[in-house]
Amino acid sequence: MAATDPRNDTSSSESSPNTGARLAASQLFMAAAAAVLATPVATAQTQVPESGVIQLRGQHYADSQPDIKRVTVNAPSAWLLTPIGSNWSLEAGVVHDEVSGASPRFHSFTDRNKYPTSGASRMEDERTGADVKLTRYNRRSAWALSYAYSSENDYKSNALGAELRLSSEDNNRTWTFGLGTSADKINPTRGGVRNVRNEKKDTDELMLGVTQVLSRKDIAQVNLSYSRGNGFYTDPYKLFDNRPRNRKSVVLLTRWNHHFEQVAATLRSSYRYYDDSFGIKSHTVALEWVQPFGNWTVTPNVRYYSQSAADFYFDPIIGPNGPDAVATQLFAQTLTGFTSADARLSAFGAVTVGLKLGVQIGKQWSADLKAERYEQRSNWRAGGGGSPGLDPLRANVFQLGIASKF
C-alpha cells in the first residue's frame, strides 16, 4: 500500500481516520471489554448470549485536501455471533477494503510552482481481513481465544488473542484480562524507495480492565493496556524516513455512561490517553447522546483528538531560502539517527462530528445509517504548538448496516 498506510503509524494518530476494520488481537479483546457499555443497563459479561446475530455493513470513506481529492475506500463487512450449546459462543467477521485515489500531500509550501514539498501520486490497493473468536462461559467467568488475519498486496498480519472475564456475585463488577500477539510481514510494491524485502514486525500486548455498575443509572469502565513491538516501523514509500525498530506504548481508556430516565436517553462519554516511546502523546475525548423515539434511535456524536509530534519528526517546509533550508533541517535531524516527515507523526488536532440513525424492524431485524465529518488541522492541537505547514485534511465517512437475530 502507498504512503497513506496507517499501519506504519501509531494507533493514536487520526490523520487517516479510515483504518478500515484493522483486525488485531488487541482490538478484539478491547472490544469485548467495552461491550457492556453498549447499553444503559449493565448485564453480566459471563453469560452465554440469548440469541445469535448476523450483521452486514458497508462503509464508504473519502478524504480531501486543498485543491485535491485524495483517498476513497469502500469496505463491505459481515459479522456473526452465535451461541453453541449452553456454555459456548462463536464470533466471526470478514471485511474487504478497496482503496483508490492519491497519496497524501501533507505539507504546504511558500511557492507551489517553484518548491513543491510533496506530490500526490495515484495508488490502489485491496485488503481482506477475517477474525474468529470462541468463548467458554462458566458461572461467574468466561474465557476466550481469538485469531485474526489480514492480507493485502504488500502487508500480511496474523494475530492471536486470549481473554479472561471474571464477574462478582452480584454481577455489578467485571474484571477483564487480555493478552495479544501479532506477527506482520512487509513486502512493499517494487521494494518501495528502500528496496525493502521480507521485513517483519512483531507486537505483544497486555490489557487489564474493570467495568463497574455505579448505580441504576451509571456504569463506568477503565482499561489499561501496554504493548511492545519490534521490527520494521519505517514507511518504505517515503524518502528520508527512518524510524526506530522498537516501540512501546501505554493506553489508558475510561468510559462512563449515564442514563437520563426523564427522557429515556443515555450519555456515553470516554477519554483516552496514549503515550509511546516515539515521543507521541495523544488525548481523545468523545461524547454520544443516545435518544430513542419509539422504534427509532438517534445518536449524535462528537470527538476531539490532539497529539504531540514524534521526537524524530521534522517539517519539510520550504521557505524563502528554498530547498537548502530543508536540507539543513534534515541534516540536523539525522544526527539522532532517525527521521520522518510523515504528517501522521506530526503535532495536530482533529474534530469529528456525526449522526447515527437506528431503527428496530419487528423483533428480529434492525438497521442503522451513520454519517461522520472529520477535519484535521495543525493549529487545533490542544495548547497550540502544532506542526507548521501541515495541510488541512477533511474526510466524510458513511456507514449502512442491517442485522438480524436468530
Which descriptors apply to this entry?
16-stranded antiparallel beta barrel; disordered N terminus; 406 residues; mainly beta
Structure in words:
The protein has 406 residues and is mainly beta. The chain has a single domain (6-405), classed as monomeric porin ompg (Porin, Beta Barrel). It is built from two helices and 16 strands. The protein has helices at 25-34, 323-334, and strands at residues 53-65, 68-84, 88-102, 122-137, 141-152, 155-167, 173-186, 199-213, 218-231, 246-260, 265-276, 281-293, 296-307, 348-361, 365-377, 393-405. The protein has a 16-stranded antiparallel β-barrel with strand order 1-2-3-4-5-6-7-8-9-10-11-12-13-14-15-16. A hairpin with a 3-residue loop joins strand 14 and strand 15. The two termini are 39 Å apart. The relative contact order is 0.17. Residues 1-11, 15-36, 38-44, 108-120 and 321-325 have low confidence and may be disordered.
